[in-house]
């Protein structure tokens, strides 16, 4: 019998389902273990009680009129103890903040973000009106990076995998999101300042409280610290009541006003609106693009020649009305998703191109390693499948393809891991889920979710719309199948149940095989049986003459089934932000007097592939620069001229900061210098070859190292060396 | 003094401004002239009155007992008259419907739309839930066409013109759209069914009534017909009161129920929502992308090295909550816009690349031709500028670039015209506006608006935000400028006006040069003057001792000004729909027993560039087909294998219907046949050259005719000939 989420799913499970779907970052739940930190807290508490005891002793010495030398000696000993305590406190602070690295991380992030904002990679939206939290604009270089990432996504997934791309509206009528569960369950728990009405996310307040205590209350007992750590670990699983109880217990108040807070209550994260003028048709801005694909399953299946497997894909905006957005580009109210729904026969999840990825090796973090407190380790994808760690080939195929996608963009593979969902993180219907997590200064960030969601979504829309979203497998020859046949005798049932007859009949017909065969046996031995009819809310007595139950052999010509869906879902903004962090570095200027910023973007994603500089302001050189720029543009290579009179070193620094991989310096009218950003290698190339060389190397058809072999090096010292 | 739209703009002007901005189709207002139709109506009315008179005469003959032969003769004459009347009626019907062409248009449209829907170019959104009016999905081929159009747009405009592309959110806070005028004025007039509450667009009802009358009430007098035609011509200019009066006068009722209708009232077309959980922050889904660029002007100007001119561009979704969407893809509630805002010094609207477009010739429809009832004619763009028909070079440059963009996509240049806005269509601040209109089965459709909006938008946001959105021109040497100086004597003003002093001072300081110099003269002669202070709503007496007015010579080092903006705004969905109509044709099948559909998309926009067929189902051929498909994919050429056993002719027909320009038939393992869609020419190419040939011709680096010269023709009769 079909599963109905509204009645049987626990809200905590659903909130995890939502997180799974929602590309949120999630801390890995490591079971509390004895750590250096714990033993330091223990030592600190012991030292404090020794100090307290010595203090009392000194006061007694003084009041009992002990000698000055005796007292001085005791005070000196006490001061030594206090120094030891300070030393332990420092060790504890270092331990809490991860050997001081959180400080470095903040500084690093600040350097990246300052560069990004100054060079308009992104800008807080509507800045002249003081902005809106959680909304950002991509400025010119950010917009180019995004468009390159999306173009590569289309090439890598849609084109190479023959996917059916669709483009559906953001405005979505209520009925669709009612079916998907979003109207009822897509919520976060919120508390309100009881006086001002300001809103806060309940879990954020509790998290901030615990973190703050752990970092700053060094005198806290190891037991108390363990409790707070446990709260942090299970935070995502707490119900509204549990969150409310903890907030009360810890005396947490509104951070801005110190006013008391309301109990937590759910706030739906969808932006709501009205479709049409009547006010009678509620709509929402879609919280994900996937539903647009599911509702089109029937047409897409037909378009694919009624064959499975096939994948549909969609790139588009999604919207979440976050209660209090944080973490810059990582938690926003509007973002670009790229989603794939791969529909497959649930009985055959093999993948024809599996062998192309099965020997890949990369960091994986299976469930068991997480539960036993180990860390992620490099696994061979094929081994993970054969050992049953990854549920099936198709899921593994996408994990492999996502790995290739992210590393080709420039994500550092040492800071990329695939983390399997723990049982309590996964929706009950999901077969297996893995998140591609990328390490950034904010920690490990979920950037791609890859989930085997079984038949859940198609079934939900079949139920709500009454349109069967199913596939057929035609048998080469008809198959004989044993089928359960339940035949109610309506006359008898009518006499016995009158107005309730219909519900009793429906309940009888809905029995599964075991229930029916049990009933048959019971009726044969006892002649009657008690039967619970949920829709009536009571138990009725079924007699032998009211129905017949049998198994019959039937010929079937086809199998009709709901396909499983495997869903890789990409948070494009998150991937881009992590790529910025992974690509950023600083190096000293030629004079050594300042640090210069560089983004080491691969040419594939670089916002501009090439800059063109005349070495000096001179009409001949400027003409050559123009000509080169025109031929680059005609070849479809994005480029920028810089004809300001600034020093060539300054111009290189400007362009490095935008991550432009190649710079052409026009220093003669026949041949020019091409400089590569990271190595600062320089070669000489004839003016009429430049566009072709840059096009080849920036489209990845050859490497800079190949180019370096082919052309003479530029011998004079480069301007920024 | 600055212009404030809320107080001085007439609502009809603003509604036209909105239409200008909103890519709506607009019928050209041709002044009513004497037409064939009018004279036919006249003839019909005369014939009818003759018939009436003869009828009366016959009745008199009968009652006066005339002879049978006399009566028969009169009846025969009457019947002849009735035949003549029928003939006139038929002529009139033909004249009204444009010689029967509207019927053909409908049939043609139906053929296109059926093909588009059947092949999933587009689908009504949320179809399994019975859809939502005005929302459409792009299925796989439609999505590919759209993505090709946008990629070409980026190459043609952003890359070739060095534009700064940005990407801003759809969710927009109220303050931004308050400043732009959308919150107050972005409305359509609506009427409600007074019993059911159903909503209708007031102008649609009036338009439908007039059209229906004109088409079906043949007995209507020529005067009445002229009146209804006049109503249609001025429909867009009617105020709510005027619309309401006409609806009452004509007795128009709710079309579904025949219930009475309410008076017209404005309905705001923006989708409204709430940002954040508090309910205190109203937001809207943006009705256009342009505002995101305007609010970022300061940062973009800085990014461009504080230099003008420069252009910013944005591609993205826009939303309009239409009262009752019609016309399929042409009037929708969510659509993709591509907008350019080119910022330029208002004193210098020349364009450096103007000479590249000035010799282009195409259909233009200047204001004067429209007003005098002429039709569009082919003009040379350069002549149009030099004769002052097009306001300036930059506007003309974009008109030329839009012409090149549309025709390269495959829009038929004979069904493309650039229509200038009439004075009453243009916002008062606009310098000049031209729409690229494409003729479709729905008539001439506005697909691109190209407007010189002067400084309006930047000024509106400067006023509302308090942030100066201006540019500076630094002078090589300081310039001496004569400046008006108004110095209020606050002591005297304070004594005279007390609490109202501030408003009086502001009004005095806001005087323009002429007003100030007039006041100075009056004060010198009369000693005092009456002065109206709008903000006080009264006139006050200003005395000579209350202020000094003078002109002083000041040295200025720079000029600070608000740039003008020239805005080309592209309705991508409309362009694509018109492209579908212009690309569609039918041709007989080989057997001649059916008509086959073809889309003659140029390779640039074709959703798939190439299909690959093994001639027969055979493992060797299928292996070759796979290999060719893989090499095409690796080269970034979208392709599709069709390995069904269907006849090659059927497979060609399928792929023609998707507009695929090239088909590769694998009929040997060494060389294969390439067939071009429209000519059906076939050539033979070696297997390992295929991908390179297809890539070259589909990326437009060579033409099919060149390829045809280079490779041997396939000699055996092609399968579909």
UniProtKB/TrEMBL annotation, chains A, B:
Q: Subunit composition?
A: Homodimer.
Where would I find the WHEP-TRS domain in this sequence? 43-99
Domain annotation Aminoacyl-transfer RNA synthetases class-II family profile: ranges: 247-588
Q: Which reaction does it catalyse?
A: tRNA(Gly) + glycine + ATP = glycyl-tRNA(Gly) + AMP + diphosphate
Question: Membrane-crossing residues?
Answer: none
One cellular-component annotation, GO? mitochondrion
Q: What is its main location?
A: cytoplasm
E.C. number, please? Answer: 6.1.1.14
Cite the Pfam families for this sequence: HGTP_anticodon (PF03129), tRNA-synt_2b (PF00587), WHEP-TRS (PF00458)
Q: Name one GO biological process term.
A: mitochondrial glycyl-tRNA aminoacylation
What would you give as a GO molecular function for this chain, any one?
glycine-tRNA ligase activity
The family database entries (PROSITE patterns) matched by this protein are listed as: AA_TRNA_LIGASE_II, WHEP_TRS_2
| Protein name per Swiss-Prot or TrEMBL | glycine--tRNA ligase
Assigned keywords, A-Z = Aminoacyl-tRNA synthetase, ATP-binding, Cytoplasm, Ligase, Nucleotide-binding, Protein biosynthesis, Transferase
Q: What's this protein's family per the entry?
A: Belongs to the class-II aminoacyl-tRNA synthetase family.
| The protein's enzyme class | ligase
Q: Where in the cell is it found?
A: Cytoplasm
